[in-house]
Hints:
The complex is a heterohexamer, with 2 copies of chain A, 2 copies of chain C and 2 copies of chain E.
Chain A: E1 2-7, H1 16-29, E2 33-39, H2 60-70, E3 74-78, E4 84-88, E5 90-93, H3 94-100, H4 105-111, E6 123-125, H5 128-136, E7 139-143
Parallel strand pairs in A: 1-2, 1-7, 2-5, 5-6
Antiparallel strand pairs in A: 3-4
Chain C: E1 7-12, H1 21-32, E2 38-43, H2 66-70, E3 79-83, H3 84-89, E4 102-103, E5 110-111, E6 115-118, H4 120-129, E7 132-135
Parallel strand pairs in C: 1-2, 1-7, 2-3, 3-6
Antiparallel strand pairs in C: 4-5
Chain E: E1 3-7, H1 16-23, E2 30-32, H2 47-54, E3 59-62, H3 63-68, E4 81-83, H4 85-94, E5 97-101
Parallel strand pairs in E: 1-2, 1-5, 2-3, 3-4
Amino acid sequence: MKFAIQINEGPYQHQASDSAYFFTKAALEQGHEVFRVFFYHDGVNNGTRLTTPPQDDRNIVERWAELADQYKIQSVTKDENGNETVQTELVVCVAAAQRRGIVDEGEAKRNGKDATNIHPKFRISGLGQLVEAAIQADRLVVFGD
Amino acid sequence: MKFAIQINEGPYQHQASDSAYFFTKAALEQGHEVFRVFFYHDGVNNGTRLTTPPQDDRNIVERWAELADQYKIQSVTKDENGNETVQTELVVCVAAAQRRGIVDEGEAKRNGKDATNIHPKFRISGLGQLVEAAIQADRLVVFGD
Amino acid sequence: MSETVKKFLYLNRKAPYGTIYAWESLEVVLIGAAFDQEVRLMFLDDGVYQLTTGQDTAGVGMKNFSPTYRTLGDYEVKNIYVDKDSLEARGLTQDDLVAIAWEDWETEEEIENIVEVVDAARVSELMEESDVIFSF
Amino acid sequence: MSETVKKFLYLNRKAPYGTIYAWESLEVVLIGAAFDQEVRLMFLDDGVYQLTTGQDTAGVGMKNFSPTYRTLGDYEVKNIYVDKDSLEARGLTQDDLVAIAWEDWETEEEIENIVEVVDAARVSELMEESDVIFSF
Amino acid sequence: MSILHTVNKSPFERNSLESCLKFANKDDPVLLFEDGVYAVLKGTSAEKQLEAALAEQSIYVLGPDLAARGFSEDRIIDGIEVVDYAGFVELAANNDKVQAWL
Amino acid sequence: MSILHTVNKSPFERNSLESCLKFANKDDPVLLFEDGVYAVLKGTSAEKQLEAALAEQSIYVLGPDLAARGFSEDRIIDGIEVVDYAGFVELAANNDKVQAWL
């Protein structure tokens, strides 16, 4: 079965991202497909590579990145010449990210920012990706406050 | 009268930072002193310079920076030789900031991060600054969720 | 893009301005309109406050997004529901809420106000009928 | 550092783990101990859940910070209050809560458990007596 | 020492106002702002609770938050006073401390 | 089409569970997790509400969240079933959709 996951809160402040992680992991371990994890609202803050949690605490951002690697939460597209592009499906909403200061190279250029903070395993994309995920997936499961 | 302000939530998701801003502005306009604005919990996310809110929306981060400039929400310390150091008193809690990825030069160096995102008018410091603010101020006013 | 047509229910339970959920939920509805799904909006609990008339945000420095609700008819949203009990507990009636018109561009069929006050049983039924529930 | 001694009241109303407020509130208490103020902690509403015994966070991958409460006596915290009505509404008694010991290093005076269950009137009084209220 | 109590949550969604009114001392003022302003409207299921409180203490509501949410002053319970941010500051200054029921 | 309803908020702080139980169709399962798990404990002011619901629908609680908060299974109301994250996934898969009462 195909799952899409939506996360509405940032890391550490609320348990939402933790719960979503364990749900996603369990779904993958059962052989389900997790089509996309969509980070919305403050959820976009899960996509920063700049966190340094205390050594005795979990690293929420890295944990997502590792899960996405291990279970290939990613999509593959082919261009005209048959060249494949692999994209991670940890997707951060661009509009929500702009408000909150989550920035990749393209966003930095467009908005005149002198730094980026997106984690390399996350990507910024439009809200349409949430709607599309809801259409494609058999189940949309939302984690929030 | 001396006020200290505490803000517990990030920009845009909750009204906390907006309310705190208008309260602080009104206090300053009445001639009160605002000794320190302390950003705790997700409130640390108010200190990023990377936000790009929509053009028809307020810029919460810049608004704080401008208010701090206009009313000199800052402290002045003198060293042995009488040289003055002016510090902004928009203070971001270091422990909360590490969890959430708000980073200045020093933090980037210490934690091996390749970028910073702190706004130049904010500074990262210890939780003791909140306690000290509560001691020094006549009133501590907290804005949160 | 998919050919699938799903029944989307946007379930709004949060008041506007105190938090951003109402506004960012509306952004999903607007973007979602491009996907040609069957869309319904439901306002429940404090979500009913999203539709109040006369919102004036000048004093809080925030963007007033309430006029956008009036344009939802142009985004192919034809069904908007408000829970009756939620209104009553808050001392509100439909007169306190915006009216949202809808027009079929092809048939020129017009509906003056697509906002419908429904009872709890109908709320449950509408949840049951939908394929996906977006909860905000 | 200031010479002023203020009466600090830390007022905790949030459950642990679902949100970080409980844990980051405790961090303020620990840091605050260095400032030699008169410190009191109050647990009210869902805040009483912070003190339950037997917390085991292995299954949720979060740090179990409940052992830290037991050490509060070492941080010069001598007064910890729990609201009786909040406990009762949640089906809890003091037996469900950690005991926190305190010892005066100079006089060797010992208190086995500084956690005190108080009624609403006493809660109000404690708020009234304090100089600063930290609310979490 | 008097306390200004602030409540920024809807009484229909959270228990903050209820707790505030339970534990606030008589004579201590209460300020409702942000989503807390919904509590001051006439005809709601929270009205009786507010009226009982009004008999013992002053209740204020932040005007800008009320206007943002679409309600004019004629919708609010008699005896509740409307203040702006300057009034909020004065309340905070005129009482010995502030307790936020978050 | 059956719905899995999830509630992650304490019934003493928010109205989420109340709304969920009001609007959930009979036979639709409810899963309590995060701070929502406090609702399943015996002897609370929410117990009657839970027992009334149990007569009509299945109620589940997420074990890891219950343990994190210090409560063993013998503290929970009879008839409520404990599941782990795998069980949460199965509930989501076995019902036609999931509604989160945030």
